[in-house]
Amino acid sequence: MTLPPRDQLLRLRRTLLAYTASILHLLLCWLLFGAGFMSLSLGGMLVLSFVVLASGVLFLLSIWLNLNLRFHDPSLTLVQMCWAIAVVFISAYFVENLRALFLMMVLVVMMFGAFRLRLGGFVRVGLFTLLCYAVLMAALWWRGAAIEPRVELIQALEFFVLVLGVSLLGLEMSSLRNVLQQRNHDLHQALERIQQLAITDELTGLYNRRFANELMSQQKALADRGQYGFVVCLIDLDYFKTVNDRFGHAGGDAVLRQLAELFRHTVRDVDFIARLGGEEFLLLLSRTDTAGAEHLVGRLQEALRDKLWEGFGALRLTFSVGLSAYRGDEPWEDTLQRADAALYQAKEEGRDRLKSL
Ligand SMILES: Nc1nc2c(ncn2[C@@H]2O[C@H](COP(=O)(O)OP(=O)(O)OP(=O)(O)O)[C@@H](O)[C@H]2O)c(=O)[nH]1
């Protein structure tokens, strides 16, 4: 059996809490029944208990079966609150003498809305409470219960002042919760941004040297476990200084950005490309052998030959590559070291070529 997602679990927990409160309310009813304050027969008490317990189970089931997700507010806060308030008023109808005390349960229900309802929700619950109160008074009057209008009016006023007070407190808590949620969201985004910045090269958006080292060590661990290889290519642009001399440093930057875009589009999704600094790049090819890497480098050279540099006219660029395949059970630094030596050879032998060691 799989557990519901976190949001649903939270809703279940909150509904379970409300269910516990309604069971406590029911216990109070039974206590008053035992003490002779309820004008309800044993059968009536059993029906009331069944209705309260069954409705709670229905709310819990609707969340467990995800039926609540079909509603505008999947927490069902308003529905649950109105139902709980109705139950309090229904049971209050049968209480003799202690009705005002009994109605205080409505305040507990109000507190449940504190973390979810906004102003509109509180107004609706308030109006619903008002309606319930009026219906209760009418029903009592209809039944011929002894109602002292002045006392009832004072009790009603006191009740509504309390409901208003609790609603205002609830609103305050609700807005506090919103602020906290927003802060949490902002912090989460800032953290994501920081994590992104920590691994990317600012100029090109490729991975940076620090992350390249991490990737190398990860690749080594994976290769050692999975018995497959990986290849490291160090790519260094030839005579890049002339680009800077011709177009200025900003122009050189723009060329590096366009080059990064070309690399990104040419390598496979499973491969990694990082800028180690200056005009030097590292290509990390996973599950590839030397032949496969040479093939990819050929494709990159071809793409570079055909590249039309936006804003740089007839610019032609080449690069030299030092390639090295991981030999198994060697430190990844050794693989990189060999690629570096191979790159040195490629430069020494006239550039625009690939050397592997
Ligand atoms: N625009 C720009 N230029 C950079 C950046 N980092 C390094 N460079 C330039 O890259 C050039 C590298 O020069 P060199 O090391 O002599 O290399 P090269 O001119 O490419 O010659 P070889 O590598 O020997 O073929 C220098 O002019 C640096 O200023 C950068 O972030 N932006």
From TrEMBL:
Entry EC no(s): 2.7.7.65
PROSITE patterns per UniProt: GGDEF (PS50887)
Q: Which CDD domains match?
A: GGDEF
- Enzyme category, top tier: transferase
Which reaction equations make up its catalytic activity? 2 GTP = 3',3'-c-di-GMP + 2 diphosphate
Q: Where is the GGDEF domain?
A: 228-357
- The residues that cross the membrane are 16-38, 44-64, 76-94, 100-117, 122-141, 153-171
What is this protein identified as?
A: diguanylate cyclase
